[in-house]
Amino acid sequence: MANHSGRQLASKWAKTEALLSHPGLASHIPPTSKYSPQQLQHMLNAHGMVVIKPIVGSGGSGVIKVTRTSDGGYSFTHRERTSRYTSFDAMAGALRSRTSKRNYLIQKGISLATVNGKPIDYRVKYVKTFKGWEYRSLVGRIARPGLFVTNLSQGGRMVLAGEGIRSSLGASQVRSKKSKMREITVLATRVLEQRFPGISHLGFDYGIDRRGKIWIFEVNTRPH
User: pTM here?
Assistant: First the structure.
């Protein structure tokens, strides 16, 4: 694999752009853009809640949730701490110290389906072997109380995907949602393999919102 591919593969932006090129996948990707204060303001006006995350990085550690509050103010949450501000400029100034060290992207925030009030998302591991692509796991990850990120490194709890879907959306949804995640995984892998030849380990992070729509949050090319 060429060196530039390795750098690109670490970039959430490069992978998002590749997936957006396919109309069947684009509708499952939350609106995403590169971070700037102007873009943050635009996306908050459009969506009310967004998530900011490092373009290169994993584990959920640098993820920040930003919300326009009902009283006209703003807040951002990092890990368990929420900071509130009366103006956008004050909040953007406070964010600058967190976002100046590396490049970030902004993604529309998705109100995930929950289990006992805690958000749940899903990780699908898909690996290329001599027999072709195979599923290694399909699991749900429930956030630790008080957190909005579900990463196991941040205290999230793992459950079987079917159990997670049943607990958050109901038993009648299990078969169709698992089938749809698999369908998206196959299609996205085909697109990524064309753009980045040589990939062999993929970890798809999916969310299902409260209305049951499946969203692709991220594709990790060296999933743990």
Answer: 0.86
pLDDT for position 223 = 52
Cβ-proximal residues to 110 (8 Å cutoff; 6+ apart), any chain: 30, 207, 209, 215, 217
What span, in angstroms and rounded, lies between the C-alpha atoms of 174 and 178? Answer: 6
C-alpha 63: how far from chain center: 10
| Residue 67 contacts residue 76 (beta carbons within 8 Å) | yes
CA–CA gap between residue 26 and residue 99 (Å, rounded): 27
Nearest to 43 by CA among 92, 35, 90: 35
The separation between CA 223 and the C-alpha centre of its own chain, rounded to angstroms, equals 14
CA atoms of 161 and 144, how far apart (whole Å): 17
CA atoms of 149 and 64, how far apart (whole Å): 9
More confident residue, 222 or 49: 49
Determine the Cα–Cα distance for residues 15 and 56; give it in Å rounded to an integer: 11
Residue type, 102: R
The string of pLDDT tens digits covering residues 96-141 is: 888 877 888 899 999 999 999 888 999 999 999 999 999 999 999 9
